[in-house]
Design brief:
9 helices
């Protein structure tokens, strides 16, 4: 194709016009695409400060979480007389709100054991300034525990549960006796009363169960002896005789 022929062809192409609808449609697509890109760019610009703020805030948030975690750990190990001990008690009191009446005896025993553990730590570390507040905490918790267990004793006939609490109160009594031997004065009269009450309630339930059984002559004599001891209020002695005669050690739930 010569140069003249090429020029002639180009001139012919210039005379060709695209349909109006197609032109308008193409313009809308182009401008719409440009607008969409512009909007996305503006959105990115607007979001950038938030992104930067988050990046700046993240270390502060992480630091705050670390502080909260460490404070919680220190609070859990706080002893009477420490600054964080009041917060520890607040968390325990908040837990108590959600404890059901059925779980309250176990919860009160748990708190009593915690207070005794705190007192033992203070004694072992010879932190004399903390002795008085720790002893007060033990006394207060024991009084609360005794009240809860007295209510339980008056309303429950669950032999297995009563037997469990008899053992747990005995364990607490032994712990207190150990502290007394180290020169720590603790008033455990309330604990003694509730412990004895639980033993007597347990013995009365066991005697009632024996009366429903078919016993041989030897067992019947033993049952009468146990009942007599129970009537005399010698509950510890009666429980020991029951265990010996009926060979049911640690099996009160059967």
């Amino acid at each position: 194709m010569t140069e003249k022929e090429l020029i002639a062809k180009l001139q012919e192409l210039r005379q060709i016009k695209a349909p109006t609808d197609w032109v308008n449609f193409t313009k809308e697509r182009i401008f719409a695409n440009e607008t969409s890109r512009g909007e996305r760019f503006l959105s990115l610009i607007e979001f950038l400060p938030h992104l930067l703020n988050r990046r700046v805030f993240a270390p502060a948030l992480l630091g705050l979480l670390v502080v909260v975690f460490l404070s919680f750990s220190l609070m859990q190990s706080a002893l009477p007389g420490d600054l964080l001990y009041h917060l520890k008690k607040i968390t325990e009191n908040s837990r108590a709100v959600f404890v059901s009446p059925e779980e309250l005896p176990e919860f009160s025993l748990e708190l009593a054991n915690k207070r005794l553990a705190e007192l033992n730590q203070i004694v072992e570390k010879n932190q004399t300034k903390k002795l008085a507040p720790a002893i007060n905490e033990v006394q207060h918790t024991l009084a609360q525990m005794a009240q809860v267990l007295l209510t339980f004793q008056a309303t429950s006939s669950d032999v297995a549960a009563i037997d469990k609490f008899v053992k747990e109160t005995e364990s607490i009594k032994n712990e207190i006796q150990s502290l007394k031997e180290r020169g720590i004065a603790i008033d455990d009269n309330d604990l003694e009363k509730v412990s004895e009450g639980l033993k007597c309630k347990l013995l009365s339930l066991l005697v009632a169960d024996l009366e429903k059984r078919t016993l041989n002559d030897e067992q019947a004599v033993a049952a009468q002896e146990i009942k007599k001891i129970a009537d005399e209020g010698k509950c510890q002695e009666g429980l020991e005789l029951f265990l010996m005669k009926f060979n049911q050690k640690n099996n009160f739930d059967k």
